[in-house]
Design brief:
Helix 3 packs antiparallel against helix 4 and helix 9 packs across helix 11. The protein folds into 2 domains: 98 residues, Serine Threonine Protein Phosphatase 5, Tetratricopeptide repeat, CATH 1.25.40; 190 residues, no CATH class. Helix content is 67%, strand content 0%. The N terminus is likely disordered. By secondary structure, it is mostly helical. The protein has 14 helices and no strands.
């Protein structure tokens, strides 16, 4: 519930901020002069903000396109912001290409030079070299890139296997005590406080830790984040890779299909969302929170699908990794959970409270 709340808050905040940023400036000429003066004074941070404000206040206007290009040019001066400069030029080209403004051609040339510079800098990092070695191992042709992703996924699954086994063990224990908890729910349906106490006693009796499956997942997060970082470093090389429909002739018919593994692909995001839903459904939950978990199994995939497919343009290479990872996870969960549960232990019924019957009164003679 917390993750969804955070994501939703970020989404709402982003909408609010974008709404504030789209406010019209009172005098575009004056704002442009201020931005140019700030740039001349080498106050690049202020110049970038002013160019950004100007570009947002003039959507569809050629002056807005030029301001967006100037923003990218300022960002590219700093090594840390070069990736942001690339994203800015990509947004400019996508938004203003139909208008045919000359600045779009400038942005395309600028972007090609920027990509060469960023990729050269990224190639010096160890994560880049590791992924590149997998691509080289598979022949460095257009299919090598998705094969390398699958090989990396298998390697990550092997490295995280002990932690996932711990997670599966906790899930299995939760599955085994579910029938017992359901019986407790029936017996104490009118007393939630007593139900919570009895459930905790049951966990203690059967040595079940309801949080046992959470800790291994938290430990795995740095590994998953590291792989995401690796794919982002290698993003421009993925422009040479294809996968099934990605990069096929269909990609020229609709913008929903990626032209390469470096671009966003909506069908892949949809398949990933379905795989995430299946993974959530196969995950045993605490029956006392069954309703909340049922809602989360629907909300979480939809939320992440919206983030990956609409709000942020994640490269399809990263989505392919997540999809393959989820497929492995589904198989692993199915194998771990299909084992029949341990013999059902009856829940000890609550001891009946003794009823005192009133003694019959003796008749007076």
């Amino acid at each position: 519930m917390t993750v969804a709340a955070v994501v939703l808050a970020v989404t709402i905040l982003g909408c609010i901020l974008s709404g504030c940023a789209n406010e019209k400036v009172q005098d575009p000429i004056k704002t442009l002069a201020q931005a140019q003066a700030a740039e001349k004074a080498k106050d690049y941070e202020r110049a970038e903000k002013l160019y950004d404000t100007l570009s947002r206040s003039l959507p569809g206007d050629e002056r807005g396109a030029k301001a967006l290009f100037d923003k990218a040019r300022i960002q590219a001066m700093t090594k840390k912001k070069r990736m942001a400069a690339y994203e800015t030029t990509r947004a400019l080209i996508r938004k203003y290409s139909p208008h045919g403004y000359p600045v779009v051609k400038q942005a395309e040339i600028f972007q090609r030079e920027l990509v060469k510079k960023i990729d050269k800098e990224n190639s010096q990092q160890i994560f880049y070299k590791i992924l590149d070695s997998f691509v080289a191992l598979t022949g460095r042709h257009r299919f090598s890139y998705w094969i390398a992703i699958i090989l990396i996924t298998v390697l990550v699954k092997i490295l995280t296997w002990p932690m996932q086994q711990m997670q599966m063990k906790g899930m299995k224990q939760m599955q085994q005590v579910q029938p017992l908890i359901k019986e407790l729910q029936k017996k104490y349906k009118d007393n939630q406080q007593e139900l919570g106490r009895k459930v905790m006693e049951l966990y203690k009796e059967h040595k079940v830790n309801p949080f046992a499956s959470c800790l291994p997942l938290l430990i795995q997060m740095p590994v998953l984040w590291g792989l995401y970082y690796t794919i982002r470093l290698y993003q421009f090389q993925f422009a040479n890779g294809t996968f099934l429909w990605i990069g096929s002739s269909l990609s020229h018919l609709t913008p929903l299909i990626a032209k390469s593994l470096a671009d966003r692909d909506i069908p892949l995001v949809v398949i990933y969302t379905i795989s995430m839903y299946v993974t959530q459904k196969l995950t045993p939950v605490d029956p006392t929170q069954a309703e909340q978990q049922k809602m989360m199994s629907i909300m979480m995939p939809l939320m992440f699908g919206y983030l990956f497919g609409v709000m942020y343009e994640f490269p399809s290479a990263f989505m392919l990794y997540w999809l393959v990872f989820n497929l492995f996870q589904i198989v692993q969960q199915h194998i771990a959970l299909r084992t029949p549960p341990v013999e059902k232990v009856a829940v000890t019924p609550p001891e009946p409270t003794p009823v005192r019957r009133p003694r019959p009164r003796r008749r007076r003679r």
